[in-house]
Amino acid sequence: MQNFLRNDDLGKLILRLTVGVLILFHGLHKILNPASLDFISKQLTGIDLPPVLAYGVYLGEVVAPLMVIFGLFSRLGGLLIFGNMIFALLLAHSDQLFTFTNTGGWALELQGFYLFSGLAIFFLGSGRWAVRQD
Fold first, then answer.
1. CB burial class (10 A; 0-12, 13-18, 19+) of residue 35?
2. What mean pLDDT do residues 100-120 have?
3. Under DSSP, is residue 9 helix (H, G, I), strand (E, B) or coil?
4. CA distance 103 to 55
5. Residue 5: its pLDDT value, please?
6. What average pLDDT score do residues 85-92 get?
7. Residues with Cβ within 8 Å of residue 46, at least 6 apart in sequence
8. What pLDDT is attached to residue 79?
9. Which of 11, 18, 93, 133 is 20–30 Å from 41 (CA)?
10. Closest by alpha carbon to 113, among 30, 20, 44?
């Protein structure tokens, strides 16, 4: 029983599934509503970046979560999620960086969760329960 309670691979699987599934919902929304990329394109042009980079959201919110969920190059998937969240914070949430909610929480808790969880997956790797251990 003690070995089960100290199972790093199970912890990695739970983290991978939680982050991967939750961020994949955001990617599926963008697939089903491609007009949502217009906002991202406008934000990119506002900082002199080409609007075609908006399609990178599919890497960070569809491909990367699938990599993480299945444990297939999950370190790269975690890094892509981390990068995706850096762009999200810079483009859409920079004005909320130092703000709190009415209940005292950080206004960017969800974004922070994805940002740091992606980074954790990058450092931890997939664990044993994966298509490909890394």
1. exposed
2. 97
3. helix
4. 35
5. 72
6. 95
7. none
8. 98
9. 18
10. 20
> What pLDDT was estimated at residue 29?
97
Q: Rounded CA gap, 17 and 66, in Å?
A: 9
Domain ranges of the chain: 2-124
Residues 6+ apart with CB under 8 A from 127: 8, 9, 10, 11, 12, 13, 16, 71, 133
0.85 surpassed by pTM = yes
| Percentage of residues in the chain having pLDDT higher than 90 | 93
Question: Is the torsion defined by CA of 122, 128, 131, 134 positive or negative?
Answer: positive
In the chain, the amino acid numbered 132 is R
Distance from C-alpha of 60 to C-alpha of 52, rounded to nearest angstrom: 15
Mean pLDDT of 34-44: 93
For every residue of 50-109, DSSP letters joined together read -GGGGGHHHIIIIIHHHHHHHTSSHHHHHHHHHHHHHHHHHHHSGGGTT-B-TTSSBTTH
Token look-up 């509503």 returns: 33
